[in-house]
Amino acid sequence: MTLDDLVRRAAALAAGPQRAILGITGSPGAGKSTLVAALLAHLGDHAVAHVPMDGFHLADVALEALGRRNAKGAPDTFDVGGYVALLRRLRAADDDPAEDVVYAPAFERDLEQPLAGAIAVPRSARLVLTEGNYLLLDRGRWAQVRPELDEVWFCDPRPDVRLAQLTARHVAFGKPPAHARAWVAAVDEPNAALVEATRARADVVVPATLLESLPAVG
User: Fold this and answer.
1) How far apart are CA 112 and CA 185, in angstroms?
2) Are 201 and 146 in contact (CB under 8 A)?
3) What pLDDT does 76 receive?
4) Is residue 145 within 8 Å of 138, Cβ to Cβ?
5) Beta strand pairing status for 151-156 and 20-25?
6) What is the 3-state secondary structure (H, E, C) of 138-174?
7) CA torsion angle for 50, 218, 80, 179 (degrees, to 10)?
8) How far lies 31's CA from each of 84, 164, 209, 217, in Å?
9) How many whole angstroms from its chain centre is CA 190?
10) Cα-atom radius of gyration of the chain, to the nearest Å?
11) Most buried of 15, 55, 180, 215 (most Cβ within 10 A)?
């Protein structure tokens, strides 16, 4: 499998008669955003939008009220109902002349907070890329996500590379190294175990060799 293979597969989805939604999933630090960036860079001849699941993180004020700020990133710290509603709206917009643009939230890494209405998905977007950890999770309301996606690709990096990338990302966004390592062990790795258990449900498994060949994001 090569990047060209994946680009051709994504382009075929974009060329269909209806808007398609392609999910990119994998554990925290797996390289989902890197793969999305590579696909966007190679699909220039197609109208493609990018809507990350992370825009549906609950804000810190909500997590504080729930007593879950120290579990940020776990399945119950997202507005999964809102995410499902957006995916359904993106599909329905294809047949609704009043829906010229659908606005979606983004996640601001510098602030570690969601930003409402930050991403515009125009009617011309025939393929929507959406990436996140729990696209294949089959419990609770998360089970409603997979039926809204045309395909889901699972990023499968080497575990040591994933952990190094994940820890480095936490450090880059402000956590001291010791705190970053502790957070990964206490929060991210239990979440990773949940995600890894969904691997068999993916349409495509993107191997470590391909992921490691992609240029780093940012």
Assistant:
1) 19
2) yes
3) 95
4) no
5) parallel
6) CCHHHHHCHHHCCEEEEEECCHHHHHHHHHHHHHHCC
7) 180
8) 23, 11, 12, 9
9) 18
10) 17
11) 55
Tokens of 203: 């349409």
- For residues 184 and 64, give the distance between their C-alpha atoms in angstroms, rounded to a whole number: 20
Place of tokens 């393929």: 127
CA distances from 105 to 52, 74, 155, 177, 218 (A): 8, 19, 23, 29, 20
Report the distance separating Cα 151 and Cα 129, nearest Å: 10
Q: What is the pLDDT of residues 109-163, one digit of tens each?
A: 766 788 999 999 999 999 999 999 999 999 999 999 999 999 999 999 999 888 8
Amino acid letter, 209: T
Give 57-96 as a DSSP string: BPPHHHHHHHT-GGGTTSGGGB-HHHHHHHHHHHHHGGG-
Name residue, tokens 């939604």. 21
Tokens found for residue 10: 């994504």
Q: Tokens 């045309």 correspond to what residue?
A: 150
Q: How far apart are CA 101 and CA 89, in angstroms?
A: 11
If phi > 0 it is left, if psi is from -120 to 50 it is alpha, else beta; for residue 29 that is: left
Q: What is the pLDDT of residues 62-92, one digit of tens each?
A: 999 999 988 888 999 999 999 999 999 999 9
